[in-house]
Structures are given as C-alpha cells and as structure tokens.
Amino acid sequence: MAVIQSPDSLTVMDGRRNTSFRRRLAARFDTLRGVLMLLPTLVILGVTVAVPFLLMSAMSLWEQVGFGYGDGWSLGNYAEIAGEPLYTTLLLRSLAMAMAATLMTVVLVYPMAYFLAFHVHRNKLVWLIIITLPFWTSYLLRVFAWRVVLGYEGVINSGLLELGLIDAPLDFLLYSRSAVIITLAHAWAAFALLPIYVSLEKIDKSLLEASADLGEGPVMRFFRVILPLSMPGVIAGTFLMFIPTVGDYVTPALVGGPDAQMIGNLIALQFGTVNNWPMGAALAITMILAITLVGLMFLALSRLLSRWAR
Amino acid sequence: MSERHVMIRLSNISKRFGLFRAIEHADFDIFRGEFFSILGASGSGKTTLLRIMAGFEAASEGTVHIDGAPMDAVPPHQRPVNMVFQNYAIFPHLNVADNIGFGLRKLGLGRAERQRRIDEMLELIALPGYGARRSDQLSGGQRQRVALARALILRPKVLLLDEPLGALDKQLRAQMQTELRALQRTVGITFVLVTHDQEEAMALSDRVAVMDEGRVMQIDTPAGLYERPGSRKVAGFIGSMNFLRGVVLGRDGAMARVQIAGGGAVCRMPADRLNGAHGDLDLAIRPEKIALHARAPGPDALAGVLRDRVFLGERVHYTVALGDGGETVIVSAPNTAEADGVPQTGSTVWLSWPETALMPLSDT
Ligand SMILES: Nc1ncnc2c1ncn2[C@@H]1O[C@H](COP(=O)(O)OP(=O)(O)OP(=O)(O)O)[C@@H](O)[C@H]1O
Ligand SMILES: [Mg+2]
C-alpha cells in the first residue's frame, strides 16, 4: 500500500522543525543577551583592573636606570624585595596590622549586625543609616577625626588631663600602630558590617525555634545555627575589609608614626619621591600575591573549622 | 470510660496580640497516646495554640500543663515536646544525618550510639542511606520525613505537628497520612496535629478540636463531629451539609415531632437530641442520609421540585427545591438508587430519611 503523506502531516513536521529552530534561536539570544548585559561591566573591569594589572606586572620586570629603564626583562626587583629585610618587615607588618584591624572590626561589628537582624523589627533602614552614617563622610575626614581624638592635645588626652587621671598627655596614642589599627577598624567597619548583617538577616527565624525545640539553649543556638549560617557573611566581610586595608597608605601616613608605616606608604614612595616605578610595581604585585595567599589560608582554615564544628 | 492519663492540659488559655484576640478561653485535655487534631480555617489560631504548647508564645492568660507539670516558667528548649514546623525548618548547613541527630548532643551519647539511633530513624522514615545527603537535595516529602525523624529521635512525650502535609501534593499527602498514622501507632507518642484539611483530620485523629476565630467550637471523635455537630459552623466545616429550619410541634414519648419549613411535612426525631428546645429550630441533615423518591413513600415525606441532577459516577447529586421555591436541599444517592428510572428535572420528588438523621443545631 502506498503511503501518501497528507499535507497536514507535512505542515506538522515543518512546524516541529520550526519550533526546535526557534528554541535554539531563543537559547542563542538568551546567551547573547546575557553577554550584552555583562558587557559594560566587562569593559570597565578590563580597562580599570585587568589592563593596569598586566601593565604593572610587566613594569615590575623592568629595571630603573637613572631616569630611564634598562633593556630587557629581569626579576631583579623581586630578588631585591626578597633580600632586603625592610621590605619583608613592612609587608609582614602590613598583613599583621590589617589582620588585627579586621579581626577587631568583625568582632565589634558582629553584635551590631546581630542586634539589627534579630532585635530590630521596625525601621531597620533608619537603624542601618544611623549605623553607617560615619561612612557617608569622606575617608580622609574620618582619619583626621581620629587625629583629633587621639592627638597630643586631642579629645582623650585633654579629657584625661581634665579629670586629673594623668599628669602629662599620653604620647603613644597617636602616631603608633594601635592608632593605625583603631583608625582602620573604624574607617572600614561598614564593609564588614553590611555582609554580616545581610547573612544574619537571611537566616530563617524558624531555624532558631527548631533548635530551641530540639533542646538547645541560647548559647548553643548561636554556635550551632546562627554562627555557621552567618559564616559566608563573616568571610565576605573579612575579605572586603582585609584586602583594602593591607595596602592602605592614607591612615598610616596621617596617624601612624615612623614604626607604623605600611607597605602602601613604601609603594607610594616608589611612585613618588624615590621615582622607581618598576620597584613600586613589583612591591604592589608582591602585596597582591601575599594577600591572595593569606586569603586562601583563611578560607581553608574556616572550611576546616566549620567541618570540625559539626 | 476508664481513667485516662492527661498528657496536655490547657486551662483557660487566652492569647492576645495587642488588641487582637487570637485565642479565647481554650480549655481542654489531650490524653496520652492520643492522635489529636486541631482543625480550623486559616487564621483561626491553630498555629498560635500549638506554639503556646511548645512554649514559643506565652499565653496571655491560663496555664499549660504537660504530663502534670505546669509549663509557665519552662522555656521551649526544656519542654518535653518536639515540633514539626509548618515549613519543616531543616537546617540548611547540615546534612540529613546531622539534622536528624541535632537534638542528641544534649543526651551525651557516644558516637556509635548516636549513629545507631540516627540509622534507626532513617530506617523508620524509609530513607536508609540518605544520611550524607545534603538537606537542599531533598524532595518535599523527604524533608517532611526528616523533620519528623529529627523530632521523634528525642522520644518526646508529645509531638506537635503544624500542617506537616500542607506543602505536599495530593497523592503524596494521602501516602504520608497513612504513614503518619502507622508511625503514631508504632511509636505510641501523643500527636497533636494542626490542619485546615477536614478530611485529613477525620482520617488521622482519635479526636478533633474544631476552631473558629480563636474559639474551640467542639471537641469530639471524627464520627461524633460528623454525626452530631453542635453548631452550624462545625456542621458546615465538616463534610457537606443541608441546613433547614423547623418548628417543634410536640413530643410522643421518646420522639419529637418537627415541622420542616418550606415543605410543610412533619418529621420525627429523637426527643433527647433537642435538649429541651422548643419553638423555632435550626436543623441539619447530611446529603447522603436523604432518600429521593419519584412517588410519595408515606405521609412523612417532604415534597419538592427536582432542579438539577449531577451524575458523579459512583454517586448522583440532586438539587431539590422545597415547597414553593423555598430552601434547596442537596441529596447524594448511590447510582444504584436509580434502578427504576432517572427522575426528570422539573418533576415533583419526595424526600425521606431515617428518624436519627436529623440534627438540631445549637446556635447560628
Ligand atoms: N505575632 C503575631 N502578631 C500579631 N498577630 C498574630 C501573630 N501571630 C498570629 N497572629 C494573628 O493571630 C491569628 C491566628 O494566627 P495563626 O497563625 O494561629 O492562624 P492559623 O490558624 O495557624 O492559620 P493558618 O492555617 O493560615 O496557618 C491570625 O489572625 C494572625 O494574624
Ligand atoms: Mg498556621
């Protein structure tokens, strides 16, 4: 028997081919749209991050000769960084001070975020604005404010003198490492606060009731439920604060004394007075690598801790 | 009835949120080993009542006793009850085994014993080998079972369940209902289930409390609620129901004579059900208790006009208007009742029912 394809079945087949084609087109279009939406970000990131980074990497392999650069590539700058104790000391000190400032901030800011997330029920936005109000002023102003607070004739010293608690102004307040750490902790606090707050806010309140129901009191509820669930925010806040503070040079320049200078000051010096850009670039790259290393170590440690805490 | 052990005693519990009265004078006992349901429409205060038992809400008035001990000053984590939450509240950072074993820490068991109990629970909820599964990789039904296991592993005196099957699709729901009932028989723990699904409450429970706008309307066995609803609200909430008006004419010994408004016919019903009521009366009757006749079966039958007939397969539903376009009554009959011909819509039909079918209602 001959099978005659009816025109109907033909159009059906045609239609099917058509829809699969359309589906593929739509999928392509989706990808395209995604790429298009990302494009401005990609361009900005490329121009402002990737390109300068590559330029810096390249420059760090040059060598300064007088007012010009020597021929060819060399690892001389890096060799000098490794060999000269001053550089290593400054780098380690910067990491340590940034760590101290970050630790201090996270510990101080966590209760604030906790309060905001769990105990404020109305006008959260108002509270958030009040808490982040200091960050609406310029960074420089905030640092200067601490000079006023910590200075030789500053708020603390004159207050203590006035109260008769001290006879002479305390001169270790300003121009010291602790001054830098305090100022950094305050100046960057919002960067740690916001991610922690968001991660706490996201925690489903019924999980706390469930853990109470299963027999845990307030303290264990915190350690077994709230803390692990807010860890992503703590880690994000730690990174957001630690990364920029390692390289900060404004704060040590303004409130740090000679023994509180950080790697950022040295890098600024290389690009400024010393006028050894390749060395500055090499120092900057070294700093980035050091931050990455510390960051990875921190991540591994927090993974390990959270697995162990089960 | 023999003396039963009271597991939960609610003594005159009221709860206000600001000026809003969420619970008014809840006052009842739940017995040991009982499957007790709290049934009510959305917003009727079921969750609030359960949370008062668990200790998450403090009652504005009244006291909760659990197994004889007053719970006024006992925080949730020290109450001998466990709860299955409406959204299950599975810990997202823990795997299935750690979720189930969460409450064991307090018991100070060794690692092996802990593992043994968790495995036992996984077996019980039919999820053996799922211990290492991440909790976000579970289906709705599996999450529900994990929540159940997490509460049961602590062997509480009472298990509180807040609409545990609400999020499941119909088929899974029916399956889980069977499992839940079987589980309750196995473990012998008192279950208090909150639900807005009357079929669920009827199918699972030993007793049901029907709530409406913060009040407990009636507490009875499923059959009791069905056969003897005390009020129009309860009657309307459980199964389908016809509501009629009637007048008590008088009594002949154990039987009372009641004239039905609309049809005019005089019916008989057991006098003791009336509780001494006289005059106008609200009455209710289940659609399946009414028989439909094409010819008058006797003087007591109620005449009406058949308005509509809906064939539902197993059963046939008729809509009958009583008297002159007065109240309508739904009749539900098995399809076998039509052996002697299908009645025509628009024709006159007669309704009759057993003397015990008519129920008086106390209030509106
Ligand atoms: N924390 C609260 N503050 C104010 N009102 C509340 C609070 N909790 C519940 N209510 C009110 O109390 C009433 C009863 O709430 P409840 O959650 O007990 O209802 P429900 O019977 O469980 O309803 P559903 O079936 O929708 O879960 C509702 O009208 C609700 O708006
Ligand atoms: Mg509820």
Kindly summarize this structure in a few lines.
Chain A is an all-alpha fold and 310 residues long. Helix content of chain A is 75%, strand content 1%.
Detailed description of the structure:
With 310 residues, chain A is mainly α. Helices cover 75% and strands 1% of the residues of chain A. Chain A is globular and about 70 Å long. Chain B has helices at 46-54, 96-100, 111-124, 140-152, 170-187, 198-204, 222-227, 232-237, and strands at 6-17, 20-31, 35-40, 61-66, 69-70, 81-84, 158-162, 190-195, 207-212, 215-220, 242-252, 255-260, 266-270, 279-285, 291-293, 302-311, 315-322, 328-334, 348-352, 359-361. Chains A and B meet through helix 9 and helix 10 of A and strand 6 of B. The structure holds adenosine-5'-triphosphate and magnesium ion. The site of adenosine-5'-triphosphate (ATP) has 12 residues of chain B, from strand 2 and helix 1.
Which class of the largest domain in chain B in CATH terms?
Answer: Alpha Beta
CATH architecture of chain A: Orthogonal Bundle
Most residues in contact: chain pair: A-B, 18 and 25 residues
How are strands sequenced across the largest beta sheet of chain B? 6-7-8-3-9-10
Q: CATH homologous superfamily name of chain A?
A: MetI-like
Termini separation of chain A comes to 73 Å
Query: What value does the Rg of chain A take, in angstroms?
Result: 28 Å
Topology record:
The complex is a heterodimer of chains A (310) and B (364).
Chain A: H1 7-59, E1 64-65, E2 68-69, H2 76-83, H3 85-118, H4 124-132, H5 139-150, H6 155-162, H7 177-187, H8 189-201, H9 205-213, H10 218-246, H11 250-255, H12 263-271, H13 277-309
Antiparallel strand pairs in A: 1-2
Chain B: E1 6-17, E2 20-31, E3 35-40, H1 46-54, E4 61-66, E5 69-70, E6 81-84, H2 96-100, H3 111-124, H4 140-152, E7 158-162, H5 170-187, E8 190-195, H6 198-204, E9 207-212, E10 215-220, H7 222-227, H8 232-237, E11 242-252, E12 255-260, E13 266-270, E14 279-285, E15 291-293, E16 302-311, E17 315-322, E18 328-334, E19 348-352, E20 359-361
Parallel strand pairs in B: 3-8, 3-9, 6-7, 7-8
Antiparallel strand pairs in B: 1-2, 1-4, 4-5, 9-10, 11-12, 11-14, 12-13, 14-20, 15-19, 16-17, 16-19, 17-18
The complex binds adenosine-5'-triphosphate (ATP) and magnesium ion (MG).
